[in-house]
Write a structure and sequence with these properties.
Layout: H1 49-60, H2 64-77, H3 82-95, H4 98-111, H5 116-128, H6 132-143, H7 151-164, H8 168-181, H9 186-198, H10 202-213, H11 220-233, H12 236-249, H13 254-258
Helix pairs in contact: 1-2, 1-3, 2-3, 3-4, 4-5, 5-6, 5-7, 6-7, 7-8, 8-9, 9-10, 10-11, 11-12
C-alpha cells in the first residue's frame, strides 16, 4: 500500500457559501459558523454578501479571474467582513498567491477571532505549507468553540495534519473525535481504516470499510485496502469480491495493477 496520506477537508464545499449570507441570522459558512455570542453577533446582510456568493460560484467553476474580482469587490464594499477576507483567501490560495492568501486568512480571523470555519481553513493552509505546529493550534482553536456546527471537519484535518507530521497516535485520536461528532464522515472512516490496517488490527479495518461502504461508494484505494485486509484475515470470498469490484470499477488504476501480486 502506498504511504499513508489522508487529504485535508477544507469545508463542506463551496456550495455552502451562499447559505451563510442570506437571512439576518448567525452565519454558518464561510464566516461565523454558528459561533453565536462566542463569535460575531447577529448582523444584518452585508453589502459584500452578493459578491461573496458570486466569487464562490466562479471559484467552483474554476473561473479564477471572475472569482478574484468579486472577492476584491466584497472586501472593498465591506472591509470589516470576515467572510469577505475569507473568500479572498480561498481565491488567492487557488491562484497560488500564498503570501497574499496567508494575509487574507489572518485578516478574516482578526475580524472574527472565534470563527471556526476560518480557523479550520487557515489550519489546513498552514499544514499544506508544512507548518504543522502552527496548523494544530488553529485546529484546536476551532474545536474550542462549543457552537461549531461541523467540528468533525477540524478534527479530521487535525488528524490528517498529524499524519503528515509523523504523529500517528495524535492522528488516531483526532480521527476518532471526528467520528464521535459524525459517525458517517467518510474521510475519517477511511483514515481509521488506514491506521488500523497499519496497526495490523484487521478486524477493525474490515469494520471501518464496511461502515464506509454504507456512506459512499468505494474508491480504488479503499477496495485495495479491502483486498489486503481480507487476504490477511483468510477470507478468500471477501478478498475476491473486493478484487472483482476493483477490476470492474477502476481497471486502469494503480491499485488494480497491484492485484497481480495476490494472484
Amino acid at each position: 500500500m502506498s504511504p499513508m496520506r489522508t487529504p485535508l477537508v477544507m469545508l463542506l464545499g463551496l456550495a455552502l457559501l451562499a447559505a451563510g449570507c442570506q437571512q439576518q441570522t448567525v452565519r454558518d459558512e464561510p464566516g461565523g459558523a454558528a459561533t453565536g455570542n462566542l463569535g460575531s453577533p447577529l448582523v444584518g446582510p452585508s453589502p459584500a454578501d452578493v459578491y461573496i456568493d458570486l466569487s464562490g460560484a466562479y471559484l467552483r467553476e474554476d473561473r479564477l479571474t471572475e472569482a478574484f474580482m468579486n472577492a476584491k469587490k466584497a472586501v472593498i464594499v465591506d472591509p470589516g467582513s470576515s467572510n469577505a477576507h475569507y473568500m479572498m483567501a480561498l481565491v488567492q490560495q487557488r491562484l497560488g498567491q500564498l503570501d497574499e492568501a496567508d494575509a487574507a486568512y489572518r485578516e478574516a480571523i482578526r475580524r472574527d477571532p472565534r470563527s471556526p470555519v476560518a480557523l479550520n481553513a487557515y489550519g489546513s493552509f498552514l499544514c499544506d505549507r508544512q507548518r504543522f505546529d502552527d496548523a494544530d493550534q488553529y485546529f484546536r482553536r476551532a474545536l474550542n468553540n462549543p457552537l461549531y456546527r461541523t467540528p468533525w471537519l477540524a478534527s479530521h484535518n487535525a488528524a490528517s495534519c498529524a499524519l503528515r507530521a509523523g504523529n500517528e497516535e495524535q492522528a488516531e485520536r483526532d480521527f476518532r473525535a471526528a467520528l464521535r461528532a459524525n459517525p458517517r464522515f467518510a474521510p475519517s472512516l477511511l483514515g481509521m481504516a488506514k491506521i488500523t490496517f497499519k496497526q495490523q488490527n484487521y478486524l477493525s479495518t474490515r469494520a471501518y470499510l464496511q461502515r464506509l461502504s454504507e456512506v459512499v461508494p468505494h474508491t480504488a484505494e479503499s477496495l485495495w485496502i479491502g483486498v489486503q485486509t481480507e487476504q490477511r484475515l483468510g477470507d478468500k470470498d471477501q478478498m475476491a469480491s473486493y478484487g472483482l469490484k476493483l477490476r470492474a470499477k477502476f481497471p486502469d488504476s494503480e491499485e488494480a495493477k497491484y492485484l497481480q501480486t495476490f494472484e
